[in-house]
Backbone:
């Protein structure tokens, strides 16, 4: 005979699950870091509406870390200034993050010397940015014991950095650049470029004279018309192919 389901045990499990999820949501809200509720962290500056999600990654050297306004720092993001905690790094900030920056879950920004991230940059998860690289000049010493090399890193405004990308010391990335997922970037990247590969190279670029070269393969997204309500958007999302075709037939002819 089939075993009878223990309804009471199932009910208790659902109740416990709901309690755990509710409790964890409360912990996430209470543990997040903002300018109003910085906890133990004392950043050099942290702007309005910026939030570091809980649980945090490794964070140290925060007096030399300046965060802009309206930034979203996801869970388990590491932000460090200096080689180790409790160093005096001088009067100037080491890590600057501009307004409106989004750092995806599990990303690392390691600023042993200056790292600057421009406003409105978006990072996918697990991006690694570092101003320090290991040295291996002496073949008789373990690499981890050799003094590292440091070079400043600069990421211009408006960039999109894909999942798992690595930005190496000395990188200079222009404005509105796309760094493909998994790319390894070193050196200078011009404005309005798309780079991919390891090492990364320019695979597409926009200029005022030629536009995008090679040309884009997909049409540009159509902006949502001004005045469109959330109810209208939900109704459009529920349309099937036949409904979209019928709606297209209702569009007025040009010049009518």
Residues:
């Amino acid at each position: 005979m089939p075993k009878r389901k223990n309804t009471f045990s199932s009910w208790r499990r659902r109740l416990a699950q709901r309690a755990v999820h509710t409790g964890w949501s409360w912990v996430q809200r209470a543990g997040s870091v903002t300018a109003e509720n910085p906890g133990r962290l004392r950043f050099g500056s942290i702007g309005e509406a910026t939030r570091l999600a809980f649980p945090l990654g490794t964070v140290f050297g925060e007096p030399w870390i300046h965060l802009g306004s309206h930034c979203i720092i996801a869970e388990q993001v590491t932000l460090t200034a200096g080689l180790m905690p409790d160093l005096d790094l001088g009067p100037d900030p080491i890590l600057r993050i501009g307004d409106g920056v989004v750092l995806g879950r599990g990303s690392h920004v390691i600023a042993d010397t200056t790292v600057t991230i421009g406003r409105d940059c978006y990072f996918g998860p697990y991006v690694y940015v570092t101003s320090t690289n290991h040295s291996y000049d002496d073949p008789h010493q373990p690499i981890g014991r050799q003094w590292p090399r440091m070079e400043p890193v600069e990421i211009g405004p408006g960039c999109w950095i894909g999942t798992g990308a690595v930005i190496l010391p000395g990188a200079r990335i222009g404005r509105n650049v796309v760094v493909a997922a998994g790319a390894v970037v070193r050196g200078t990247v011009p404005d309005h470029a798309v780079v991919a590969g390891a090492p990364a190279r320019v695979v597409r670029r926009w200029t005022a004279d030629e536009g995008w070269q090679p040309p884009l393969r997909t049409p540009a997204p159509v902006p949502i018309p001004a005045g469109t309500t959330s109810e209208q958007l939900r109704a459009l999302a529920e349309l099937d192919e036949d409904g979209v075709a019928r709606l297209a037939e209702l569009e007025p002819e040009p010049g009518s």
Remarks:
- The radius of gyration is 24 Å.
